[in-house]
Structure formats: structure tokens, C-alpha cells
Amino acid sequence: MEIVQYIFRFFYRRRWFFLIAPLVVTLLVIFYTRNMKHTFPVEMTIYTGIVSGYAMETGEPNVQNSTVVNNTIDNIINIILSKETLREVCLHLYARHMIHGSPVEDNEYIRAAHYRRLQQITPEEVKRLIDKSSEVKTVENLKRYEKATPDNFVYGLFNWNHPHYSYRSLSQIRVVRLGNSDMLKIFYSADDPGVAYQTLLLLNQHYEQRYKNLQFGTTSNAIQYFEDELERVGNQLKESEDSLTTYNVRNRIINYDEQTKQVAALDKEYELRYQDLMFNYNSATASVRYLETQLDENVRLLKDNADFLARLHKVSDLNTKVAELGAFYTDSTSSGGGQQQLNHYKQLLQSAENELIHFSQSYSNRKYTREGYPTSNFVTQWLDELLKLEKSKAELEVMQTQRLELDEQYSHFSPIGSTIKRQERNIDFIERNYLTILASLNAARLRLKSLEMNSASLKLVNPPVFPLNAEPTGRKKLVMAAYFGSLILLIGFFLLVDLLDRTLRDPIRTQYIAGAKVIGAFPDRVRLRERRYVKEYRERAIQYIANALQDYFRPGDQWPVVNVVSTEADSGKSFLIGLLHDYWEERGFRVVTIRYGECFDPSSSDFLFAESIKDLVREDLGGGRAILLVEHAPLETATIPRALLREASINLVVQRADRVWRNSDKQLFARLLQQSGETPAVLCLNRAKREVVENFTGLLPPYTFWKSFLYHYSQFGFSSSAR
User: Fold this and answer.
1) Burial class (CB within 10 angstroms; exposed 0-12, middle 13-18, buried 19+) of 686
2) Is residue 219 part of a domain?
3) Residue-range definition of the domain harbouring residue 396
4) pLDDT of residue 333
5) Total domains present in the chain
6) Which phi and psi (to 5°) does residue 663 adopt?
7) What angle do CA 10, 15, 19 make, to 5 degrees?
8) φ and ψ at 127, to 5 degrees?
9) Which of 325, 447, 604, 673 has CA atoms 20 to 30 A from the CA of 259?
10) CA nearest 8: which of 422, 561, 412, 506?
């Protein structure tokens, strides 16, 4: 409730600002808008055909997603409002006005007053550029004359602030899409009906031409780009394929996968044969070693026989040749000279083995018959195993040679495979790139045809109409905005000042700022018409303060002490003490007033170490009751002993309501509260406004109807009867 009262008084205190200032601002706005210009609106509707047009890409009605449609619509809108389009409109509009305008009669191009003004600002050299017979030639002359310099009139028409030709004015054109349709509605208004009408007519001509140029130019550039890329990638694809062919020929590659399979099969067959040969070789070696241990010394000499060794070497050589040829001609059905040669060497081998066997048998018969040893079987077995061993050796030598050949083939084919795959991947990538570019080229060509058809569908559905009536001005809204805007600005300003202001002023602010209870307020100097009520104001104020102080007197206390304190000088302590003294004496109380400087020295040791205020009283208090009013020096100049503060019934701090509550006051008052202990310390506002005093005393005279009415409702007595 106190907050609401505070807000009410806030408005009441600044009532004249809130009443007069907004009215002054409103009157100024009314005065300066008396010649406010009227504007004439013109609009037109165009059909784009983007959504429901025919699509060349599909051969069916154009069905596109919302993103593409919105993007295309935005492109058209941006082209309409682009600076270059508006510049063309500016030059053609100026040329049309200079050609068809009249200084004495309004027409559909421009009003006479505006034409006369245009003639005044146009330099003579620019007037000579006007060709009355052709608007196109006039625009060409203006473009040749135009230069981007501050003193060039034609350049300034569009870049200065002319109300009809500048970019600032033409940019007020609004383009709105009608729902989700193909329709665009264009709005424009100007202070001249002919200017607004001709502006939209020219805009319809130039935006369409510019849209076609931009769309066709972009698509044509894309087609040229794709054609160049297609030729470049095609050459690259041909070079890559030729490179792969050359590489295959150089490395004798027909089918790499089949060739590598054959090499792997030969390697596997080689391993199997090699294992068999090693088994035969190891078996023959073991058998020869065993049989040699069973023969006597003479038979062992057979190995050292030169004829025997020659025959054995011959058998070994023939075994090697048979093994070499057998590695290539394993099939008995093979024909040709190689197979015949193999059969010939087999016959020679068989003959050489037979000769070696006969030689060894005759040698063994001659040796063993004379001695009488029956060991011919051992010699035959030993010779058979020896022949097997030689055959295995020959075949192993051939297999080792084949191993080297297989290793060479592996070394040959291994890098070829990765190289061929890399080149094939490269060819595949280039081929896919080629097909993608080809598809893009076809799409771009279809897009060009589609754009040609869609551009032909840009139609003017509702052409602009010459306006006859002006739009209602926003003068009323402007006046209302000025009044309420200034009112809100003033309220905000004064509210901010009020929130930041630290002047005590009234009990609510004092309690918020100082954090102390206010028990009363004493009036300030009053206005001239209220001077006859000063005595009554003071009596009622001092009566309330005295009664409030009496509530703090302790029961049975013979000499209740009231310490009257202030944080700074000239706060009105002496005057207030005098009024309290007179008030209580008139009612039969005995009052003793003790003042600093008269009754005690606040800087003396007697005062500083005093335990009771009675020690400082020079007169005899006697045995009766008495109220002791003690006026202390300001806290900023002298301190008060703690015993004197706690001895009192109440410590009354007098502060002027029209002064700011400083940080030093805050510190001094906080120290006073701490030293007072349980003794209450309260504030009394001096030199307060009459409205503040009425918070404690009630309504003060004069009792006029308006004042009584405001006071009654300021106390929220909405349903009570006024007194």
C-alpha cells in the first residue's frame, strides 16, 4: 500500500510537468505537420509462371519443391528492387518528365508545380541533352553525360535526395508475394500521382528485361563451361586409355587376371612336384648310403672307376635334358619337334642306363666270381638306387631353374597389377566425370529452353492505374505518438531521477534510504496563501512529535532523557527543542533543556567520561519529575559518550528533508545505533513539505473541496464518505 501511495504522490508532485510538457510537444508537432504532404498509392500485379509453368526438363507442368520456388521468387523480387534496375527507372523517368511535362497544367506524367521545380534545378547543359522526339536517345545522352562526381547533376539525381528520382525514394517500392501463388504485387506511393504511375510503368519494362539478361547470361555461361569441360575431360580420357594400352603392350599383358591365375597354378604344381622329387631324392640317398655299407672294399672301388664315372655322368646329363624337356612337354599328345626331341633323349637315356648296368654287372661278376662272393644282388640294387639318385638330382636342378623363372614372373606381374588397377581407376573416374559433365550440359541446355519459356510467361495481370485520391496522412497517429511518447519519456526520466535521488524528502524514502523509523515531520516554509496557517501547522506537528516521544518514556522514570542529535549543523535542533519545551510546559510538565556549548563542552574530558547527563546539569533537579531535553553537537564534529546515549529514553535524530543522505551520514547514524544499544534511535524530518507533514497530522488547512477530495482518495478511501 505504501508503494501505491508513493507512486500516487510521485505523479502528484510532478503533475504540472506531466500535464504541460506533453501538451507543448503535441502542439509543436501539430504546428510542424500542418503542411504534411499527401501521397498517392499505385499498385500492379504480375504473373511469374514459376510454380504452374511448363517445365522443359520433364515435358510436364512444372512441379518444384518449395525451396526452389521461394528462391526463384526471391530472385525476381531482388531484381525488381536492385539498384541497377532502379537506376534505369530513374533515368527514364527523368527523361519522360522533361519531355512530356508542362509548367502550366498537370498531366499524367507530372504535376506542373513539380515540373517547374525540376526545370529550376536542372542545369542548362543537361537541358540541352533532352531530345523531345525520343526518350531512348535522351537516356543515352544522359548516360554519356553521367560521371561519378559530386557536381554531376545526372549522377546526383539517383544518389542525392530528390523525392522522385533518388535511390532513397525509389527503394520505397514494396514487392509482396500473394500467398503461395505465382503472383507478385508491387506497391509504390509518391506525392505526385503522375510520378507514382509512371514509375511502376517503367519498372515493369526494365525489371523484365534485366531478369531475362541475367537468367540467360548465367545459363549460357554454364553451357559454355560444361562444353569446355567436356572437351577437356574427353581428351584426358582418351590419353588415359591410350596410356593403358601402351603399357599392356610393353609388358605383354593380354588378360592380367588369367595370366596371374596361370602363374599361381604353375607355382602350386611346382610345389607338389618339388615335394615328390625331394622325397625321391632323400629316399634314393638313404638307400645308396645303406647299400654302400653292405658292399666290400673292392666293390666300392667301382665308384672310382673312370669308365664307370663317365657312363654315370652321361646318364646324369641325359637325365637333366630329359627333365628339362619334360617340364615343357608333359602331355604325351603334344606334337612338334620338341616332343620328338624328348623321346629321342629318353631312348638315349634308356640305352645309357642299360650300358651302365651291364658294365657294373660285368665288373661285379669278374670281381666276385674269382673271389667266390655271392653279392651280385647288392650291386644291382645299389646301381638302381644310384640311377634314381642321379635322376632326382637332375630333376631338382631343373626344378630350381623353374623356381627362378617363376620368381621372375612374380616379380614381373606384381607391380603390373597395381599399376593397371590404378590406371583403370583413373579411367573409371574420368569416365564417370565425363558422363556427369555430359548430363549437366544436357540439363543446362534444357534449363535455357525452360528459362526462355518461363521468361515469356512474365505477364502484367493488373497494370498500374493513375491514382485520383491521396492516402490518408498519419498526422493523427503522429500527434498521438508525440503526446504519449513525450509523456512516457517524462515519466521515465523523473522516475529514474527519483530512484537515483538520495534526498530524504518523505518517510517512505527515508526508511528505504536510511533504514530508520521516522516518528514525525516538521513543516518547511509555506506558500504565501498558506502563511496564516503556519502557527497551526507547527502546533499540530509538534503535538504529534511530542506524543510520539512520550511513548518511549519508561514507566517510573523520574527524569526521562531525550537526546536530540543531528549528523550535520543547521538541521533545526534548537528550534525543535524550543517548541517541545514550550509544548510540554504549557501542559504542566517540568522541562529542563541542556544545550551543548552552554551547559557542557562536548570536547571536554568531563563530557567524554560522564556516566550520566545529570552530572552535567548545573541547576538542581530537585525531587520532582522533569523531562530532560539534551541538545548535542552535530555527530560530524563531536562524538557522544555511549553511557549518555544508553541512559536516554530515546535518541532523536533531526534531519532536514530537503538534504541528501550522504555516505558520511550513513556511517555516523550506523555508529549511533551501535552505541545506543537497546535505546531506540529514530528520525524526525525537519523542513518537510506540507504533504509529508499530513502523513502524521492528517489533513491540514485550508480545507478546500479539491484538496479534501485528493487527500481522501490518496488515502484510498474509495468507498468511504469524505470528511
Assistant:
1) buried
2) no
3) 256-452
4) 46
5) 4
6) -65, -35
7) 140
8) -60, -35
9) 325
10) 506
Order of strands, edge to edge, in the sheet holding 174-177? 174-177, 183-190, 40-47, 459-462
| Same domain? 485 vs 444 | no
- What grid cell was written down for 13? 508532485
Per-position b or e across 108-132, b if 16+ CB within 10 A of its CB: ebbbeebbeebeeebeeebeebbbe
Domain match, 443 and 519 both:
no
The 8-class DSSP code of residue 503 comes to: B
SS3 content of the chain, % helix, strand, coil (to 5): 65, 10, 25
pLDDT of residue 360: 59
Tell me how far apart the terminal alpha carbons of the chain are, to the nearest angstrom: 21
Give me the long-range contacts of 52-56 (CB less than 8 A, separation at least 24).
52/182, 53/182, 53/453, 53/454, 53/457, 54/450, 54/453, 55/450, 56/446, 56/447, 56/449, 56/450, 56/453
* Co-location of 18 and 46 in the same domain: no
Residues contacting 239, CB < 8 A, separation 6+: none
DSSP state of 471: P
Residues 69 and 180 in one domain: yes
CA distance linking residue 592 with residue 205, whole number of Å: 103
Output the CA–CA distances (angstroms, integers) from residue 333 to 270, 339, 344, 352, in the order listed.
21, 9, 16, 26
Q: Write the pLDDT tens digit of every residue in 236-247.
A: 888 888 877 887
In a domain, 468, yes or no: no
User: What pLDDT was estimated at residue 411?
Assistant: 62
Does 298 lie in the same domain as 349?
yes
CA 378/CA 382 separation, integer angstroms: 6
Taking the C-alpha atoms of residue 630 and residue 618, their distance in angstroms, rounded to an integer, is 13
Q: For residue 54, give the H/E element and its range.
A: strand 54-55
Neighbour tally for 491: CB within 10 Å: 16
* 414, containing H or E segment: helix 376-456
| pLDDT range class, residue 512, cuts 50, 70, 90 | confident
* 237 within a domain of the structure (yes/no): no
> Could you give the C-alpha distances from 279 to 286, 389, 510, 631, in angstroms and in order?
11, 11, 120, 136
pLDDT tens digits, one per residue of 604-641 = 888 888 888 877 776 656 667 888 999 999 999 988 99
Residue 221 lies in a domain: no
Cis check for the bond before 702: say yes or no (omega within 30 of 0).
yes
**Amino acid 110: pLDDT:** 93
> Is residue 118 over pLDDT 90?
yes
> Of 404, 438, 462, which one is at a domain's C-terminal end?
462
Q: Write down the pLDDT at residue 369.
A: 38
In sequence order, which residues have a C-beta less than 8 Å from that of residue 594 and are 6 or more positions away? 600, 613, 616, 617, 628, 629, 630, 631
pLDDT in tens, 588-608: 888 888 888 888 888 888 888
Residue in the structure block whose three cell numbers are 514550550: 582
User: Which residues of 605-688 form beta strands (DSSP E)?
Assistant: 627-631, 650-656, 681-688
Cβ neighbours for 631, distance < 8 A, ≥ 6 positions apart? 564, 573, 574, 577, 593, 594, 595, 596
Strands 591-595, 627-631: pairing kind:
parallel
Instruction: Mark whether 609 and 647 lie in a shared domain.
Output: yes
Beta carbons within 8 Å of 93's beta carbon, 6+ residues apart:
164, 165, 195, 198, 199, 202
Q: What angle do CA 229, 230, 231 make, to 5 degrees?
A: 90
Residue 172, judged by CB atoms within 10 A of its CB (0-12, 13-18, 19+), counts as: exposed
Determine how β-strand 518-523 pairs with β-strand 681-688.
Answer: parallel
Q: Give the separation between CA 23 and CA 18, rounded to whole angstroms.
A: 9
The residue type found at 597 is G
Complete DSSP assignment for 332-384: TT--SHHHHHHHHHHHHHHHHHHHHHHHHHHHHHHHHHHHT---HHHHHHHHH
Residue 246 and residue 420 in contact, taking contact as beta carbons nearer than 8 Å: no
Q: Does residue 189 sit in helix, strand or coil?
A: strand
Same domain, 655 and 520: yes
Please check whether residue 203 is in contact with residue 42, taking contact to mean a CB–CB distance below 8 angstroms: no
